[in-house]
Amino acid sequence: MKKILIAIVLAAMAAGVAIYLATGSVAPAPGPARPAITAPSSAPAPQADAAPISSPVAIRPAQPSAVAASKAPWSTFEARYRKGDYAWLLANARSAPEKGSYTMALKALAPCFNLLKRGNQDYQAEALERSEPDPQLRAVKRAALQAMFARCSNLPDAQALGTQLNALASERAAAGDAVYLVERDMPGLVETRLPKEARQKRLEELLAMNDASVATLIQNMFIRSGVTFEGEPLSQMNIVPYQAAWALAVCSEYGECGGAGSVQADENCLYRGNCDYLDTWQTVQRELPPSMTARARSYYERMHDNLSRGNFSAFGVN
Question: What's CA 56's distance to the chain center, in Å?
């Protein structure tokens, strides 16, 4: 059960920034896994053609042009992150904490630190040629390495970048970074000793931001028994399909997707040997048994309907 939960949570911030803040590293040592190879990171994102939940009538994932603009205070900095303007985010990391400048810089730069501390591109490319015997897998990893270095161009070296990251991480709370404040207060939404009405109001306010970072935080915090969806308490048996539905929603409704072109997918390939580049929808379909897949689809379709109509009261606190 835990493996399924881990596999379907495709949250870049939770998987990247939070781990960096805790450990100074965003990726474990390479593992021995050698899964199927389907697409290098430079290939077009496959979301448009994926069959998400084993049904010809299942809702297709939204393309970036179909994702509504974020209304969060940090939307301009998040847009810079999505464009891959990492050098700009570093240069402006302290300029606007009320717009999440610290967090968006950390989100962008933590994977680059993890990359650069392993050596320059030529060194890593030569090491890859020596260490990977499979020609096909080697080619896919080479493409992932090139994609990562392209994202991390025009940045300081690993030592200087690490110093910057440590400073930003230590200053973020005192600076009052907007995303940090939401992260800090998120556990209060499920704290039953606090007034339920106030917690529900805050949850609906956050959902109304229509923001990927907020949706990811909600996804991680609200996967627990007792929260409600459309007035029905979430039971233990439905936690996994409900979480899968949230993973689908974070992709299709907010544009935070896995698969080809994502930082997470390239890191998975380079550091863990997981180079199948499945998108969010394919991952859910692969990881869940058929009975849970059907429930995940049902939850997602209802989530999609409620979110598209702005019916945020459908999502209830415990």
Answer: 27
Output phi, psi for 120, to 5 deg. Answer: -75, 175
Which of the 8 DSSP states describes residue 251?
Answer: H
3-class secondary structure per residue, 126-175: HHHHHHCCCHHHHHHHHHHHHHHHHHCCCCCCHHHHHHHHHHHHHHHHHH
In angstroms and rounded to an integer, the radius of gyration of the C-alpha atoms of the chain is 20
Find tokens 């810079």 and name the residue: 80
Query: Please, which residues have CB within 8 angstroms of residue 198's CB and are 6 or more apart in sequence?
Result: none
d(CA 92, CA 119): 26
Q: What is the pLDDT of residues 80-136, one digit of tens each?
A: 998 899 999 999 999 999 999 999 999 999 999 999 999 999 999 999 999 999 999
pLDDT tens for residues 137-191? 999 999 999 999 999 999 999 999 999 999 999 999 999 999 999 999 999 998 9
- 3-state class of 125 per DSSP? helix
Give the integer Cα–Cα distance in Å for 154 and 88: 10
What is the sign, positive or negative, of the torsion defined by CA atoms of 149, 152, 155, 156? negative
Q: What does each C-alpha distance from 220 to 45, 153, 154 come to in angstroms?
A: 25, 31, 33
**Range list of H helices, the chain:** 2-8, 12-15, 17-23, 75-83, 86-91, 101-116, 121-131, 135-151, 158-175, 178-185, 196-207, 212-221, 239-252, 263-272, 280-287, 290-308
Contact 107, 16 (CB under 8 A): yes
- How far is it, in rounded angstroms, from Cα 41 to Cα 26? 19
Residue boundaries of the structural domains of the chain: 2-19+60-316
The answer for residues whose C-beta is within 8 angstroms of residue 286's C-beta and 6 or more apart is 278
Predicted structure pTM score: 0.79
